[in-house]
Amino acid sequence: MEERHPICGLCGRPIPPDVPQSLHHLVPKLRGGKGGPVVLLHQICHSEIHATLTETELARDYSTLGALRAHPRIAKFIGWVSRRPPGFRSKIPAGPRKRRRPGRGGL
Fold first, then answer.
1. Region labeled Disordered — which residues (predicted)?
2. Partner of 54 at 20 to 30 A CA spacing, among 27, 30, 75, 88?
3. Domain positions in the chain
4. Taking 50 as the threshold, does the pLDDT of residue 107 lie above it?
5. Is there a contact between 20 and 42 (Cβ–Cβ < 8 Å)?
6. pTM of the full predicted structure?
7. Which of 67, 8, 52, 62 is nearest to 31 (CA)?
């Protein structure tokens, strides 16, 4: 009998039991999403969301899976990670990435 694994809400790949996973609040808890809908994700997918978008951006513009998947950087990430096996883990720690702020000049 084939074992079924939960499916990542972002990339659509199975999540094997030995792979880090987490629940993503579609509306961040700090922005009113406590007790709101959550979706199970690979940890690498969850980390990419939070490395790309601020809590305010998530609450205001990206509070659905469709909106998240439509974000250009997240769409590019999904295309990349979808070609990896379900158990793929990044070997580089996923910390917040530096982003230029519009109108701030320089880095």
1. 85-107
2. 88
3. 21-81
4. no
5. yes
6. 0.80
7. 62
Strands (E), the chain: 21-25, 38-42
Residues 11-58 have pLDDT tens digits of 999 999 999 999 999 999 888 878 899 999 999 999 999 999 999 999
Helix (H, G, I), strand (E, B) or coil at 69: helix
Residue 35: both structure tokens together: 């007790």
Structure tokens at 33: 């999403």
Contact yes or no for 45/11 (Cβ under 8 A): yes
Helix (H/G/I), strand (E/B), else coil: 41? strand
Nearby residues of 88 by Cβ (< 8 Å), 6 or more positions away: 44, 81
Contacts of 32 (CB under 8 A, 6+ apart): 59
Give residue 4's pLDDT: 87
Q: What is the mean pLDDT of the chain?
A: 85
